[in-house]
Structures are given as structure tokens and as C-alpha cells.
Amino acid sequence: MATVIGPRHPSDEDEAAEESPLPELADGHWMNRATEFAHTSFWAVARRLPALVREAVGLAWATSRRDTIASIGLNIAAGVLTTLGLLATTGVLRQLFAAGPTPDRIRAALPALLLAAAAVTMRGALTIAAGWAQARLIPQINYQVELRLFETTTAVELAAFDDAGFAEEMDRARDRGMEEAASIVDHTVNLVTGLVGVLATAAAVTVIQPVLLPCLLLAAVPEAATAVKMARRQYLALLAWITRRRRMYLLARLMADRHTAAEIRSYQMRDFLLAEYHRMMTVETRAQLRLARSQTVTRAIGLSVTGIAAFGVYAVLGGLLLGGVVALAAAATALLALQSARSSMRMAVFATNSLYEDALYFQDYRDFLDRARHRVPAGGTRPVDGFDRIDLDGVSLRYPDTETAAVDEVSLTVRRGEVIALVGENGSGKTTLAKLIAGLYRPTAGVIRWDGVDAAELDPRQTAAQVAVMSQDWWRFPFTARQNIRIGRHDRPADRPGPDVEDAARDAAAHDMISELPFGYDTLLDRQFKDGQDLSGGQWQRLVAARGLYRDARLLICDEPSAALDARAEHALFQHLRRHPDRAVVLITHRLANVRHADRIFVLDHGRIVQQGDHDELMAQEGLYRELFELQAAGYLAQAGEAGG
Ligand SMILES: Nc1ncnc2c1ncn2[C@@H]1O[C@H](COP(=O)(O)OP(=O)(O)OP(=O)(O)O)[C@@H](O)[C@H]1O
């Protein structure tokens, strides 16, 4: 179905668009909401306001009661002083417009004048104090909201990140929704301030002359309607922008990133990438121009209607004055009140507009948190302190939106003190199986038991503490070399035994390499920062291995731990991955020479175990293992033969 937000291509570019090898980003389910909001009426917006205000006040209250009370309370007090100031002003005008000699009139007006001056001064002081409290709230709220988001994103199960919708929602919550919390509170306080100002003025006008009250309302309605319309349109445009922007961002990063620079040049991808970027930017720019035009038209219509309404108000006032319904002093104060009410109303309308708009984004944040909370694994409560065996019983895992299981009814046992190896061709399910054993994924079928207890009943934190994973796709953490190793077990208490950072680095053949860095272990491993350094792929892998060894866990999972290592480093690392009575090692590697000494080898094909046994047993059988091993060995033997011959 065509939607308003996907990239739209001009007809002459359709063909090129279809040929594009870059996948189009799919519209998320949140488009339903966008359509819903597009049809939201002004009254629906108004109806949502009390709930929004309640939410904003709740948010502020939870962050700082004192500043919340101050921001709202002081603004209300300032409103009372506005009423007082206007009433005092009428008193002044009444005295000044009265009959009699000017000095006498001025003298008579003095008390009211002093009262008006005092009210204005006090009101100014209260407004400043309220502004201070309001400004104090913002950073505190930002902190709380960000914290809540990152507490959630770091707690959700790994499987959530395989869900494309989750990634999209996370982007929206983080990029926009999160920062709107503070704005919502800010706008709510402004809304309260504006409404208090309008009410204060209305109260003064009612005391002076009640028939003037409807005039106040008449002046405000068109302004409010325009603001709401513009907010809604902007929101829809932003939804479209985020989807397109993500795609452009991917392209933009490819073209301006040091990691991709070499490949882009060697494949001469420049023209291709620029053409893709141009295609996206054309769509984006057109959308932005369309929005700017429609917003300008809406604003122009809104301002015209507002002007006509103001004219009507002045005409009514003139008529009342001529008809003798209101006195001159009251009419003059009414004009002042109108000005004051209009500026308060503008503030309230602007705040409503922004509040409504920001609330839409904040809703994304809240929706994401709600959904993400359901993806935080509950886990059990049974304590874990090591294991003798981990049994997988008919375990399967199917990734979201995939037809076949990546791991299909696998049963195996990992025993303490053993080294087991998982081998198989690319995509056969080794990494997925290793992640299941590590507890990073929960099986979609079957059971994993630690010493006979279903892993789902175990305390997940304690289970995770037993496991170290040297992952195939590690991340270059922008920390120092020491921190990069220490994060393997950053919370290890001083009295708990375990290797120190340098010992772990030595075991992973990383010590000499780190010592040669400009600041040794304290060298920052990120070129984006001053004095930062980068490492080669193999050097990084040594560091990752050092981190895994530093973690000193009972279950060590090594997924291609030596893919980027030179022969010497590989040899050194495998010396330390040998049998250890307190540890089980799960080893994944395509270099089959490294699995020869494993206690048991499991051969995977399309997610299933097709062979198992030790090296000699598997070599004695016809099968995938022997085939792969001989293919690899043949290369070495041929070279050795050539060298010898
Ligand atoms: N996050 C994911 N979402 C969807 N499918 C995935 C995901 N990760 C892996 N797969 C699919 O699951 C299957 C098994 O992948 P896995 O990474 O476990 O294989 P592997 O044996 O480790 O491969 P390799 O030797 O290339 O590392 C593959 O078909 C792969 O495309």
C-alpha cells in the first residue's frame, strides 16, 4: 500500500529506483498512528490537554517537587498580581479622567498608582523566580528520561534487536521522543502561565465590565486553530523525514567515514553512492519545500482571520463606549487588558500547540518503553555458582520473520573441564547455537538445563556472570587499552581472584603490542579523540581475546577467536584455550587444525547436528567433517609438496 512517508520517486526515476540494490526501508506500524493524528480535530487536541498536563506535572513532580511547586505556584501568584495591577490601573484612570484640577486628580490617583507599580514589580519578581525554577527542572528531567531509556535499552533481550520494528522505534524514542519530556514540562508551565494570565485578565475585566469578557475569547480562537493545524502537519512531515533520513544517514556515513573510504575507492563506488544520495535528497528537499509552502499558507490564513477578529473586538468596544454601556476609564483598561490577555493567550496557544506536538513525540518514547519493558527477560531467581554440565535438549531458534530455524532441534552437553567445538559451513548455525548456550538468546523450542535446572529458572545476572563470549563481531570500544580489557569484568571485587589486565594481555599475545603504543595501556583506542590510536584488525582481536580471558568465566565461548590473528598469536592463544578443570570452552572456528584436540566436535549443517565425535572418530567416517578437513589440509600439503619438490 502506498503511504505518505516512504521515499517517493519522480516517475522518470522509477526504473532507477527499482534497480537500487539498497533495500527500501519499510514503513513501520506507527504509520497507522500518523494517519490517526492527521485526522485529529482541534477539540480532540483540547480534550487531550488535561491528560497531557497531568502527565507533565507528574513527570516534573517525580523529578523535583520543590521546583514543580515553585514553577506553578509562583506563576499563579504572578497571575493574581496581574488582576490586582489591572484593577489598580482602572482606579488610576478613573481618577485621571474625573473632573477637577489636574494636580488634584493626580494626587487622588497616587494611591492606586503606587498599588499598580507595586503589583507590576512584585509580578516581575515572581515571574523571574518562577522562570528560575522552571529552568532548574529541565536538566533534571532530561537526565531522568535519558536514564530510563538507556536502562531499558541495555536490559532488553538480545532478540529484540533482530526485530526491525524495534530498532526503528528505538531510534524514534532516542532521537526525538526522549528530548521532548523536558519540553512538555516547559510548555505545561508556559500553558499554566498563559492560562493564569488570561484568567487574571478575565477576572479584572469581569470586575470592571462583564460585557467585555466575550470580546477576549473572540480574539483568541482563530489563533489557537491555526497553531494546532500547523503542529499536526509538521508532525506528519517529521515522521516521513525520519524514515528518509535514516536511509540518507546510512549513505552519508558511507561517504564520509574513514572505515569505508578505502573500499569506496577501490570499487569506484563514488558515483553510485552520490546518485543514491541525490535520489534521496531530491525527495527530501521536495517534501521540505512542500511543507514550507503549506505552513506559510496556513499561517497567512490564520493571521488574516486573527486580524479580522481583533478588528471586530475593537468595533464592539467602540459601540459599547458610544452607547454609554462602558465608561471611558473602563474602556481604556479593557484595551490594556485585551493586550495583556492576547499576549497571555498567545503564550497559552503556543504552549498548547507545542505541548500537543511534543506529546506526539513523547508518546513514541513512552510506547517504546512500554514495548521494550515486555522484552526485558524476567528470568528466574535460583542462584547459580558455576556448573558441572549444561544440557541442550531439542533446542531450536527461529529468528523473527524467517522461514527456517537457524538452530533446529539440537541436543548436546557441555561439561565442565571440556573443550567442545562447533564446526560447519557459513550460515550453518554455529554462532546462533553458541549464543543459545551463552544465554544470549532464549530457545524458541526445547530446553537448556544447567545441572538439571531449566535455565529459565536461574537468576539471569548470575548466569551471565558464568559466561565469557569472545564474539566474532566485536566492537571497537572507544576506551583505553586497559579499559578495553577491564570491561570484561569491570566489577570484579579486589578480593576476588582472577588474572590481572597485563596477565590476560600476555596470554592473548597482546601485551607487547599494547606496550608499544604511545601511552601503553593508557592509550585511548579511538582516533576521533586527541592522542587516540587505532589498531589493526588482528591487534583488536588480540585485545578482545585478552578481555575474554580477563573475564575468567566458567564457560568460555570463542567464536572465531583467531580469524584475524597471525600464526604466532593464534598459537599463543590456543595454548590458553586448552582444557582447564574449572572451565568449559565452546570453540567455533573454520580453521579445523585448531579443533583437533577438542574433546568433542559437533558438525552443523542447516542448523542441525549432522555428526559428532572427536577428531579421529570423525576422520574415520565419510562425512562433512572429513571433507572440509581434507579440503583445508590439501592446500597445505600441496604447498608443502611444492616446497619439498
Ligand atoms: N540476527 C539475525 N536475524 C535473522 N537471521 C539471522 C540472524 N543472525 C543469523 N541469521 C541467520 O541464521 C543462520 C545461521 O547463522 P549463524 O550466524 O548462526 O551461522 P554460522 O554458522 O555462525 O555462520 P558463519 O560461519 O558464517 O559465521 C543464517 O542463515 C543467518 O542468515
From TrEMBL:
Top-level taxonomy: Bacteria, Bacillati, Actinomycetota, Actinomycetes, Micromonosporales
Protein name (Swiss-Prot/TrEMBL): ABC transporter ATP-binding protein
Domain of life: Bacteria
Chain segments carrying region Disordered: 1-23
Domain ABC transmembrane type-1 positions: 69-357
Subcellular location: Cell membrane
Single GO term (MF): ATP binding
ABC transporter domain ranges (all copies): 390-631
Membrane-crossing residue ranges in chain numbering: 72-93, 113-133, 320-338
Keyword annotations of the record: ATP-binding, Membrane, Nucleotide-binding, Transmembrane, Transmembrane helix
tRNA processing in keyword set: no
Membrane topology term: Multi-pass membrane protein
